[in-house]
Structure formats: C-alpha cells, structure tokens
Design a protein that fits this description.
- By secondary structure, this protein is of the alpha/beta class.
- 35% of the residues lie in helices and 16% in strands.
- It contains ten helices and seven strands.
- The strands form two sheets. It has a five-stranded parallel β-sheet with strand order 1-7-6-2-3, sandwiched between helices.
- Strand 6, helix 10 and strand 7 form a beta-alpha-beta unit.
- The N and C termini lie far apart (47 Å).
- The model has no long low-confidence stretch (mean pLDDT 89).
Length: 237
C-alpha cells in the first residue's frame, strides 16, 4: 500500500514542488539556496557572526546595544532565499504543512532544552487571527512541543490591542508600536510561573515583538525566557 501511495503521490520539495526522496524535505537546489545558520552566531538572537570560534556567549552589536529581556536566542535560517520563501508561505500562503519540518530545523538550531520548559507562541490579535484563520507561531510552537515533549501553553499571552504590520518600519518605530500591546494571560499564570519559557515566532527582525512578549512572560512569573524563530532578518549577515 505504501508503495502504491508513493507512486500516486510522490514526495515533493517543500518550496518548489520538485520530487524528492522523503516527505518534508527540500530538493538539492532549494537546499543550496537555504542559508541555515551554523558555526559562530550571536547567543541572544542567532545572527551569524564572523570568526571560527563557536562560543555560546558571543553577542552581536545589536544585542550589546539593545537590552534584550530574554536570556538566549536562536534561529534556523536566514530570512533570504529558501528561508524567506518558507516563512512567507507559512505566514501568508496557508502552508500549514511546513510547520513540522520547520520545527525540526528550529530545534536543531537551539540545541538542548530543559524538560521543565514551557513553550509559548507569540500571539496574534483576534482580528488578525480571524482574517488569517491560524497563528503561524502557534503552529510552530505546537510542533516543537510535540517533538521535544514539552508543555505547550498557546494562550499564555494575548494582544490587548491590534498593531499595524511592522514590515518596512525602522527599529524605533517597531518598539514604539508594541509598547503595552502584549500582556500575560492571568488565567494561565500557574502554567508558566517559576518555569523557563521558550518563546516561538516565525521571523525575527528587530526583536521588538519578541522583546514585548518576553517582558510579558516575565511579568507573568516566568523564571526566564529564551527565544527561537524559524528565520532571522539581518542586513549584512
């Protein structure tokens, strides 16, 4: 039966549709175009850094200059080429099938996670959720919690007011737009109180959204917060 199904529905590349050997994988061309983040990288935001030393405590200029409310951060891919196509397809293209493979890459980028960690997605405002019909960060967080066997709290945070799309905005404008926009859910306080939180989103640009969410987690009683994203935006990386 499996052989028949493979003949009728051959495995396809996640981004271009070319035939591949296994489900949930990339073809050779798309794999070469995918900028997976390896080697030396910032320990707080995951951006690649020059040099051969792979230290766990190196920070980029932005993370030195901007106070990050989270402890550790990582990203699977750079937001370009295949990474950008994957992120946009997941966010706007109804490609919810991308979440399992993306979650595996993200966990590979982050490394070991304490078993008491609680997985929390960056929330969507209910108006945007109704328009999009799903929260891509929640899909990634759910898959990550399944693979790593961690507690998943999808509604630990909520957006108290809608914010305009931040694409194309400068760093300062992003931080201003998100002030007091995200808050901890008091009904879920016991689920995160005193525990490490792994905060999940699809893309990190300035870190404004993740920063607001991390602060809300800490306000809700989290011991500390780490962040993990599918793709990292960086100009010169």
């Amino acid at each position: 039966m499996q052989t028949v199904l493979k003949l009728l529905y051959p495995s396809q590349c996640l981004t271009c549709g070319e035939m591949v050997e296994e489900d949930g994988s990339l073809c050779g061309t798309c794999w070469r175009d995918a900028s997976f983040i390896r080697g030396t990288k910032c320990s707080q935001c995951g951006v690649p850094l020059p040099g051969e030393e792979d230290s766990k405590h190196i920070r980029c200029d932005d993370c030195i200059r901007i106070a990050r409310p989270w402890t550790r951060g990582a990203a699977a891919l750079m937001y370009r080429g295949t990474g950008r196509r994957l992120a946009l397809s997941l966010k706007y293209g109804d490609r919810t099938d991308l979440a399992p493979s993306a979650a595996k890459w993200m966990l590979g980028a982050f490394g070991e996670i304490p078993p008491e960690t609680v997985v929390v997605p960056v929330p969507l405002h209910w108006r945007r959720f109704l328009k999009r019909r799903y929260n891509q960060a929640a899909l990634l967080a759910q898959e990550i919690s399944k693979i790593a066997k961690l507690d998943y709290v999808p509604d630990a945070l909520f957006r108290s007011r809608p914010t305009k799309p931040l694409d194309g905005h400068k760093r300062e404008a992003r931080f201003i737009a998100l002030q007091d926009a995200i808050a901890p859910n008091p009904k879920m306080a016991k689920r995160i109180e005193g525990k490490p939180v792994l905060l999940i989103d699809d893309v990190m640009t300035s870190g404004a959204t993740l920063g607001s969410c991390a602060e809300a987690c800490l306000e809700g009683g989290a011991d500390h917060v780490n962040v993990l994203v599918l793709a990292r935006v960086a100009k010169d990386a």
